[in-house]
Amino acid sequence: MNMHVCRVKLIDVLVNYIYMLGFINITSSNATIIIVIIVTLIIFSIISVVRRERGLVRIIWILIVLFLPILGSLIYLTTLIFSHKKSLNI
User: Can you list the pairs that 68-72 forms with residues at least 24 positions away whose Cβ atoms lie under 8 Å?
Assistant: First the structure.
């Protein structure tokens, strides 16, 4: 299976998941925008974890972000913001 087919299948799965939410009435273009935002959030979180964390903490955060992508990314970025504010004494 080539890479293009894998990407198309992943996008189809994500679009179908968003459609299954039922309470959200969205079009396919809106679903695409939501998917791009979510994937960007996850990639940014993983890059941030790899750059800032060390050792076992890095592995734990990567696992959290991979197994709970949206929630894990939001939790990591929130803790990152609060730890940065704490180090600046804000």
Answer: 69/38, 69/42, 70/38, 70/41, 70/42, 72/45
CA-to-CA distance for 6 and 54, rounded, in angstroms? 32
Nearest to 65 by CA among 50, 86, 83: 50
Dihedral sign for Cα 20, 26, 32, 36, please.
negative
Helix axes 28-52, 69-87, angle to 10 degrees: 50
Query: pLDDT tens-digit profile of 38-68?
Result: 889 989 999 999 999 899 999 999 999 988 8
For residue range 26-38, list pLDDT tens digits in order: 666 777 788 888 8
Q: Where are the domains of the chain?
A: 3-87
End-to-end distance of the chain based on CA atoms, in angstroms?
A: 51
